[in-house]
């Protein structure tokens, strides 16, 4: 298994190009199941999760190429993907695939809507909490499907097709909103989705569905009105830039010091992160091309932050912020409200000398004068990048093990940071 070695202490200066958003690319790829025409996606990030989803969709019968080439052994090289689900050959998604990537559970909605049945493994245990799928099931049942759990599989059937209805979610869920939306576009009649998640990646998928012929009103709001269509057709769509990647590099620059231009970052999507960085004393300035981040000499001020659904501070930035606050001049409080148990990075940050105390869903982060390099273990995607951020400021050498977690969601991370002056390298196993 590859590792990443960082020698801390270098400031970051230069430019970093922000890639397409993983959390939009995955559901956009899944949306290809809704039509027998070709869906073309541009700005697809080259990530392990994307490659895995290509294989999963391939098993369902989707024909996929990237820049004209089918998936080989070396992963994808280009960023324009063509997906054609002319014939669905299999409506089952087995445990082996869904357990490796939770988002692959989202194939259930489109398969059910298009084929009238689907059998998808429950995602199973996950490193960042229990993450149930009860609200997904509620959405399918509201649309008239019969849903049963059979030997670890969610089996959903709607032989006469789905019927539009009201779906009112008790809490905000990104996945359940994707599921409801991607089912409702092919249901008969109108569906109203209340308390929908407003994450920009949902709007991106909704806009792509509209290009495919879907009728959706209220995009970007918490109430979506969908008029079902008999069929959808081909479309071309560009994946929006990754706001979590942009926020992560912003935290890295804040940690290491320096001045970096995040090219392609959409400042309108990272408002909550900019707000926190401003409060921490980091300089942020929107530009025509993206977002410029700098910290030169000034110390970091502690902050009080609670994770919330969009437009609040994202849970996917919580670990990175915590890494940053380990070096603040004072005590920060970070409260996690989206996922229980999303604090696995705390014990790894402690190996670098961080002083963090947990109390239920809150962490008190006592800023320390210095971090010292150590061997640390990546436990999940965002936790792993928090260790890289800490390593940038730690004295000496930090080695992050299990970087396959990083590869799931960050495209060429060591190259992007290295080009800005970080002393970072990947060590092959
Ligand atoms: C998505 C993102 C993930 C992000 C998360 C929250 C993708 C691929 N993943 O994950 O990066 O951290 O949103 O912004 O886009 N819940 C239920 N019942 C359900 C579904 C969810 O109780 O049926 C709960 C979850 O346990 C969690 C909360 O709702 O406490 C939010 O989860 P959700 O928004 O669904 O997360 P994901 O879609 O899995």
Please bin the fraction of helical residues: 25-40%
Largest sheet: 4 strands, mixed
* Mean pLDDT over the full residue set: 95
Total number of distinct structural domains: 2
**Could you name the CATH homologous superfamily of the largest domain?**
Enolpyruvate transferase domain
**Shape verdict:** globular
User: Hey, roughly how much beta strand do the residues contain?
Assistant: 25-35%
Distance between the termini: 5 Å
Strand arrangement in the largest pleated sheet: 22-23-1-24
Low-confidence stretches: none
Question: Which second-level CATH architecture of the largest domain applies?
Answer: Alpha-beta prism
Ligand identities = uridine-diphosphate-N-acetylglucosamine
**Count of individual helical segments:** 14
CATH class of the largest domain: Alpha Beta
- How many strands? 24
């Amino acid at each position: 298994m590859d590792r990443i070695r960082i020698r801390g202490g270098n400031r970051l200066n230069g430019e970093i190009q922000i890639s397409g958003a993983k959390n939009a690319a995955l559901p956009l790829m899944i949306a290809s199941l809704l039509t027998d025409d070709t869906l073309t996606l541009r700005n697809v990030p080259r990530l392990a999760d994307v490659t895995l989803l290509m294989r999963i969709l391939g098993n369902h019968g989707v024909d996929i190429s990237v820049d004209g080439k089918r998936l080989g052994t070396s992963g994808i090289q280009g960023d324009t993907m063509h997906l054609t689900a002319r014939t669905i050959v299999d409506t089952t998604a087995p445990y082996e695939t869904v357990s490796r990537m939770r988002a692959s559970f989202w194939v259930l909605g489109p398969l059910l809507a298009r084929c009238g049945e689907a059998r998808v493994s429950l995602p199973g245990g996950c490193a960042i909490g229990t993450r149930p799928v009860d609200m997904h099931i509620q959405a399918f049942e509201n649309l008239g499907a019969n849903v049963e759990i059979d030997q670890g599989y969610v089996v959903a059937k709607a032989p006469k097709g789905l019927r539009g209805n009201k779906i009112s979610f008790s809490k905000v869920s990104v996945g359940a909103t994707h599921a409801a939306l991607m089912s409702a576009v092919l249901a008969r009649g109108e569906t109203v989705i209340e308390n929908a998640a407003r994450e920009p990646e949902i709007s991106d998928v909704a806009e792509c569905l509209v290009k495919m012929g879907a009728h959706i009103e209220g995009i970007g709001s918490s109430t979506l009105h969908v008029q079902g269509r008999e069929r959808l057709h081909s479309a071309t769509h560009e994946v929006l830039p990754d706001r979590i990647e942009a926020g992560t590099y912003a935290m890295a620059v804040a940690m290491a010091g320096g001045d970096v231009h995040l090219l392609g970052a959409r400042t309108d999507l990272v408002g909550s992160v900019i707000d926190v960085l401003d409060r921490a004393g980091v300089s942020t300035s929107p530009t025509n091309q993206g977002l410029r981040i700098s910290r030169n000499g000034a110390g970091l001020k502690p902050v009080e932050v609670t994770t919330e659904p969009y437009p609040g501070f994202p849970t996917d930035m919580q670990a990175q912020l915590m890494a940053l606050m380990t070096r603040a001049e004072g005590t920060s409080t970070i409260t996690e409200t989206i996922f229980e148990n999303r604090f696995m990075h705390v014990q790894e940050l402690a190996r670098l000398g961080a002083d963090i105390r947990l109390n239920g869903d809150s962490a008190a982060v006592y800023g320390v004068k210095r971090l010292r390099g150590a061997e640390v273990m990546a436990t999940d995607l965002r936790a792993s990048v928090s260790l890289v951020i800490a390593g940038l400021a730690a004295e000496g050498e930090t080695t992050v093990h299990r970087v396959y977690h990083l590869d799931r969601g960050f495209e060429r991370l060591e190259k992007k940071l290295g080009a800005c002056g970080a002393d970072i390298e990947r060590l092959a196993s």
